[in-house]
Each structure stands twice: as structure tokens, then as C-alpha cells.
Amino acid sequence: MCVELDLEGAVVLVTGGVRGVGAGISRAFVRAGAVVVTCARRESEVPGTSFLPCDVRDAEQVSELMSTVVSRHGRVDVLVNNAGGAPYASAATASPRFHQKVVELNLLAPLLVSQAANAVMQQQPSGGAIVMVSSVSARRPSPGTAAYGAAKAGLDNLTASLAVEWAPKVRVNSLNVGMVRTEQSHLHYGNEEGIAAVARTVPLGRLASPDDIGGCAVFLASPLASYVSGATLLVHGGGEVPAFLAASNAASNSEEEPS
Asked: Ketoreductase domain: which residues (predicted)?
């Protein structure tokens, strides 16, 4: 049985909500009946949504973004901080400016947009909900994207702190997202054979779809999660099978178990 969450008429802002995971999140809220506003630096259309241009690292642009959403729709019920990411770079050789920009996008920008949304939500009788899109890189080594992993770890801590500071009017939660199949999967996992091989390392046997992530975001924003705040929800298909299990030959060398 498929149960669709009803967020009819709720005003939802999704940063970076036009491609990949962000588009999946936007689509999920549209299906739930929400009024969805997306923002990004470059416009791209997701059916059923409206778009506003914004660089979420820029305080003036964020202030204008929030003012425009409120002037058009009267309120902001849900913010999903999805904008983020980082290209591969060696921590030993990447420039200080590179690391600064990664941290700005993945940690400081979500804080900036959340501050603007909270100022609106605190004045609303029904408050609001904020969902941070974090990563499993926050909880494990992130070689090649070290600054990104560190920023996402900071985002999880920020989630817990804001949930305390902004309660009871505003709930704040995060999604620790694992590997997702998007239009850019080939950049991370290679061709179809490589993607299939990576998918076999996931206990559920596949990479997530953007819509999988969207469903979890809708849940955290919905009344079903009304007593959930400061939480980090793992959305990773069961995680990763420990590498030592593949390397170990204990099973083949073991003696018959004693009776």
C-alpha cells in the first residue's frame, strides 16, 4: 500500500531544487500538494514549481529571496537546504580558496538561508520545519572530498544546535544521504558497468533515486514527524558492507564448529 503524505498548500523552498537530488525533492513536495519554490544560480524548470535565482552564499541575495517568497505566498512553511556538493580534489594540493568555497556552500550557506527562514517561521502561528540535506560523508572518511565531508559533519552538528535554539516553533532535521543515481552519476561511479558494480556494494542492491530522498524530506517536513527535531536520518540503503568481510578468508579456513 502506498501512503502519500498530504502537505496541501504548504509553502516549501528548496535550495538547489532544480537538478539531481534537489529535483527529486521538489517533485516529492509537488506530489504532496505543496506550493514549491526552487532556487539556484541557473534556472531550470521542474514541473509544478516556480523558480527564483539566488546564490545561497550571498547574504543580500538570500534576504531578497526570502522576502520575495513571503511577498508572493504570505509565508514559508518548509525550507529544504539541498544546495551543496564538491568536485574531487586532493586535500594536500587544493587551494585555500577552494576549501573556503566548499565550506561556504555546504555549511555556511545552509546556516544563512536557515536564519532567514527562521525569522519568518518564528512569527507564524504554525512555525515551520527545516530539512538539511547532509551526507554519509559526514560520518565516514571522505578522501578526495575532505572539506566537503568536514562541512557536512558541521551541518549535522548545526542541525542539532538549531533544533534546540529555535524550538518549539521550528523543527530542524537532516538527511544523511548515501549514493544516489542522478544525471551526474558517471562523474562519480563511471559507466553503466561501474554504476552497477557500485550498486552491488549497497545492502539494498541499488543506488538511491532522487525521489527516494524526496520522500524522506517530505516525511521530516510533515505532521507525521511533528515530534522529530534535531535528528539525522540515514538514507543510504543499509550503508556499506565492511571491507574486511570481503578481504577475510576466515570462513573458508574455519574448522567445523564444535558440537
From this structure: 10-183
Could you give the residue ranges of the DSSP H alpha helices within the chain?
20-31, 59-73, 96-103, 109-121, 146-165, 185-189, 192-199, 210-221, 243-247, 250-253
**Which residue out of 88, 148, 189, 227 is catalytically annotated?**
148
User: Is 148 an active-site residue?
Assistant: yes
Mean pLDDT of 103-115: 98
CATH number, domain 11-238, options 3.40.50.720, 3.90.25.10, 3.30.565.10, 3.60.60.10: 3.40.50.720
Report pLDDT digits (tens) over 190-236.
688 888 888 888 999 999 999 999 999 999 999 999 999 999 999 99
Separation of alpha carbons 217 and 181, rounded Å: 17
Residue % of the chain over a pLDDT of 90: 80
